[in-house]
């Protein structure tokens, strides 16, 4: 089983940048895809980005394409979400999770808050 811990959230001005980190512990991290999700107040949690086990494939929500970049370092059991040109609508709690296949995710972290001021 894997445990995930997010970090790197905070307050950033619109147009700025932020890097979120997802630290994994446990076995077989390199076997799994990892996804980032976010949940804004009063809204359902939604998909942001995902990366395959060997980083050969990435996916992005249309709302973040061209602005966010997902990457991973399997040796360090880390996954990153580089956020640039952020907008107030990017304000949310950001979560990482293990991808079990298709749209199935689990082992959710506790989340990290990102607030974008206008």
> What's the β-strand tally?
11
Gyration radius from CA atoms, angstroms: 13 Å
Calculate the terminal CA-CA distance, rounded to whole Å: 40 Å
Overall pLDDT confidence: 97
Low-confidence stretches: none
Strand proportion: over 45%
Order of helices and strands: EEEEEEEEEEE
Give the CA-based shape: globular
Helix content: under 10%
| Sheet of most strands | 7 strands, mixed
Helical stretch count? 0
- Broad structural category: mainly beta
Secondary structure topology:
Layout: E1 2-7, E2 10-13, E3 18-26, E4 33-39, E5 46-51, E6 58-60, E7 68-73, E8 78-83, E9 92-101, E10 104-106, E11 112-117
Parallel strand pairs: 2-11
Antiparallel strand pairs: 1-3, 3-8, 4-5, 4-9, 5-6, 7-8, 9-10, 9-11
Overview of this structure, please?
It is built from no helices and 11 strands. Strands 2, 4, 5, 6, 9, 10 and 11 form a 7-stranded mixed beta sheet that branches. Strands 1-3-8-7 form a 4-stranded antiparallel beta sheet, with no helix packed on it. Helix content is 0%, strand content 56%. The protein is an all-beta fold. The mean pLDDT is 97. The chain has strands spanning 2-7, 10-13, 18-26, 33-39, 46-51, 58-60, 68-73, 78-83, 92-101, 104-106, 112-117.
């Amino acid at each position: 089983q894997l445990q995930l811990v997010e970090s790197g959230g905070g307050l950033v001005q619109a147009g700025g940048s932020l890097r979120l980190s997802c630290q994994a512990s446990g076995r077989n991290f390199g076997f799994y895809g990892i996804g980032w999700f976010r949940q804004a107040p009063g809204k359902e949690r939604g998909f942001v980005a995902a990366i395959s086990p060997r980083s050969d494939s990435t996916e992005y929500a249309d709302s973040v394409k061209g602005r966010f970049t997902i990457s991973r370092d399997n040796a360090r059991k880390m996954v990153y979400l580089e956020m640039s040109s952020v907008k107030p609508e990017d304000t949310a709690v950001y979560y990482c999770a293990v991808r079990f296949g298709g749209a199935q995710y689990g082992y959710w972290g506790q989340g990290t808050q990102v607030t974008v001021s206008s």
